[in-house]
């Protein structure tokens, strides 16, 4: 009899404990104290990103404008510097944007040579932007060498299209 009372009492305590821990409110992000769920926070972040993309409009086209180079060169032409100056103005206007500079080469030369040349081209554009006041922490570079030609042709016109830096904005 005493044993059944103890068992009954233990079950009662267990049930009351479980009821106390049952339906807790969803917490927000880790330690944010906002009371909103991570799904709501992510929706809000994505909405901000969408609004930013809308605001960029024509500016995003200018950020994507390529810079072209002469054969075996990583020197920036006057036209390239003008293009990069406009990119710097946009980046100053939108400090949340980061830019990836992708260096590319034409199909001539070895893979190793073209990877190094593509890196020098990407670095030249990034350094120019830094010199115009854009933080280096907002820029990253990558070289694709001759692996991503725009024009697979073997004419000088095709090669000229492939000697370029491409720019990809991230948020």
TrEMBL record:
The keyword Lipoprotein applies. Residues 56-171 form the OmpA-like domain. Keywords: Cell cycle, Cell division, Cell outer membrane, Lipoprotein, Membrane, Palmitate, Signal. One of its GO terms (cellular component) is cell outer membrane. SUPFAM superfamilies: OmpA-like (SSF103088). It is found in: Cell outer membrane. Residues 1-19 form the signal peptide. CDD domains: OmpA_C-like (cd07185). Its main location: membrane. It comes from the Bacteria. It holds the Pfam family OmpA. GO terms for biological process: cell division. It is a lipid-anchor. This is Peptidoglycan-associated lipoprotein. It comes from Solidesulfovibrio magneticus (strain ATCC 700980 / DSM 13731 / RS-1).
């Amino acid at each position: 009899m005493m044993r059944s009372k103890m068992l009954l009492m233990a079950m009662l305590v267990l049930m009351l404990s479980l009821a106390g821990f049952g339906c807790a409110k969803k917490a927000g992000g880790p330690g944010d104290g906002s009371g909103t769920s991570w799904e709501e926070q992510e929706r809000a972040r994505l909405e901000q990103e969408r609004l930013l993309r809308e605001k960029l409009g024509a500016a995003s086209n200018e950020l994507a404008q390529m810079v072209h180079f002469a054969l075996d060169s990583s020197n920036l032409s006057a036209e390239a510097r003008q293009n990069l100056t406009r990119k710097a103005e946009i980046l100053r206007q939108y400090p949340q944007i980061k830019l990836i500079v992708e260096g590319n080469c034409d199909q001539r030369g070895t893979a190793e040579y073209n990877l190094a040349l593509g890196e020098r081209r990407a670095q030249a554009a990034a350094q120019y932007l830094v010199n115009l006041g854009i933080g280096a922490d907002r820029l990253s570079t990558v070289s694709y060498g001759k692996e991503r030609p725009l024009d697979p042709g073997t004419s000088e016109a095709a090669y000229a299209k492939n000697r370029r830096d491409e720019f990809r904005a991230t948020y």
